[in-house]
């Protein structure tokens, strides 16, 4: 099956970014939102994106005009019936998504694919509310979706191999790098990104450092382009908190920290405090341990579960999250004894069994 027309439901940050990317890549895009003004705003945002690309020499004027012409706002879900693929990009709420998929089941063509852009929910659980679950999958884009190269391609229990192959070809045709993942809470990248941000909040709660200091340590030890609090402000603490809460079935280690709950429920950004002078070595080491624990333990557990290969975790960390080094490569560099020292406090505090993958540290990344 060749995909030429894509319907997108949800014109927020992610939906608008996906639409912008796909129209630029040559796909016909139909954008639906319960609030038509949101869809119209997304269309205007795409025009601005293309105009800036022309100014910077990344697109020609004719290409920008053609991309804009491929974007259209529709009045409702029924107008998505001709689409070869429909991508859901509404708020990360299970019940909201379920209601949408039940509606789409009676609208989309029998041979069309339907994908969820969920960041943490299991595809299999959502697929139970589709009339043709074999044609349902996860396509998890990363912000900003218009330019971020990574898309996690997630196969649910009922998803057919043909659906996955079609989706992989579609991602490549749109200029994205597909990262295949097993269906698991958080998939590959959010499986460790969410705990990493949560451990940053726990370090703040424990008084180990200020937001600015914790961000600075993250940039140093992970080579991150931006620290966790800066990134959370970009994606919104409310959204990040919701994603963390969706990891609850994985156990108490994944429960949100106090300040994460406070900022998320108040829907307010974290105040990033300037770093005055240096950070004491001992305190800096404790902060680093917290951040690395948030990355390492979830990745080791996910490797045990077969969620993805080590190379996928590392590639996603570098390309989607802009880390200077991936978690598996960093664990190999540090060695088993040091990684065990870092994760041991969490194993003890939360009664977690030692991951089998810990024994492979030193050769995880090949």
UniProtKB/TrEMBL annotation:
| 3-hydroxyacyl-CoA dehydrogenase C-terminal domain sequence ranges | 186-264
The record's section on Gene3D superfamilies has: N-(1-d-carboxylethyl)-l-norvaline Dehydrogenase, domain 2 (1.10.1040.10), NAD(P)-binding Rossmann-like Domain (3.40.50.720)
Q: Which domain of life is it from?
A: Bacteria
The record's keywords, sorted A to Z, are: Oxidoreductase
Family annotation (Pfam families): 3HCDH (PF00725), 3HCDH_N (PF02737)
Q: Where is the signal peptide?
A: none
Residue ranges constituting the 3-hydroxyacyl-CoA dehydrogenase NAD binding domain according to the UniProt record: 5-183
PANTHER family, per the entry: 3-HYDROXYACYL-COA DEHYDROGENASE FAMILY PROTEIN, 3-HYDROXYBUTYRYL-COA DEHYDROGENASE
Q: What is this protein called?
A: 3-hydroxyacyl-CoA dehydrogenase family protein
Q: Which organism is it from?
A: Benzoatithermus flavus
> What taxonomic lineage is listed for the species of origin?
Bacteria, Pseudomonadati, Pseudomonadota, Alphaproteobacteria, Geminicoccales
């Amino acid at each position: 099956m060749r995909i030429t027309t894509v319907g997108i439901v949800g014109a927020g940050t992610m939906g608008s970014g996906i639409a912008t990317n796909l129209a630029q890549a040559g796909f016909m895009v139909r954008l639906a939102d319960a609030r038509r003004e949101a869809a119209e705003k997304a269309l205007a945002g795409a025009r601005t994106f293309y105009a800036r690309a022309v100014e910077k020499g990344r697109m020609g004027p004719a290409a920008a005009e053609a991309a804009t012409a491929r974007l259209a706002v529709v009045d409702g879900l029924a107008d998505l019936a001709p689409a070869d693929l429909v991508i859901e990009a509404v708020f990360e709420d299970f019940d909201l998504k379920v209601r949408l998929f039940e509606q789409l089941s009676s609208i989309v063509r029998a041979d069309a694919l339907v994908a969820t852009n969920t960041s943490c929910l299991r595809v299999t659980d959502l697929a139970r509310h589709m009339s043709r679950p074999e044609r349902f999958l996860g396509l998890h884009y990363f912000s900003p979706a218009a330019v971020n190269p990574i898309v996690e391609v997630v196969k649910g229990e009922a998803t057919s191999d043909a659906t996955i192959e079609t989706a992989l070809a579609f991602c490549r045709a749109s200029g994205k790098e597909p990262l295949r993942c097993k269906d698991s809470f958080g998939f590959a990248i959010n499986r460790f990104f969410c705990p990493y941000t949560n451990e940053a909040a726990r370090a703040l709660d424990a008084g180990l450092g200020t937001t600015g200091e914790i961000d600075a340590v993250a940039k140093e030890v992970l080579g991150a382009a931006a620290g966790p609090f800066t990134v959370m402000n970009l994606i919104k603490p409310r959204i990040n908190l919701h994603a963390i809460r969706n990891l609850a079935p994985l156990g108490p280690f994944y429960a949100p920290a106090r300040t994460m709950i406070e900022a998320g429920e108040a829907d307010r950004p974290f105040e990033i405090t300037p770093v005055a002078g240096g950070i004491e070595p001992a305190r800096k080491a404790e902060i680093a341990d917290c951040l690395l624990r948030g990355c390492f333990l979830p990745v080791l557990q996910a490797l045990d579960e077969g969620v993805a290969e080590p190379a996928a975790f590392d590639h996603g960390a570098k390309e989607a999250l802009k880390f200077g080094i991936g978690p598996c490569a960093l664990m190999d560099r540090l060695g088993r004894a040091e990684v065990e020292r870092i994760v041991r406090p969490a194993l003890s505090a939360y009664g977690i069994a030692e991951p089998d993958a810990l024994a492979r540290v030193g050769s995880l990344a090949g």
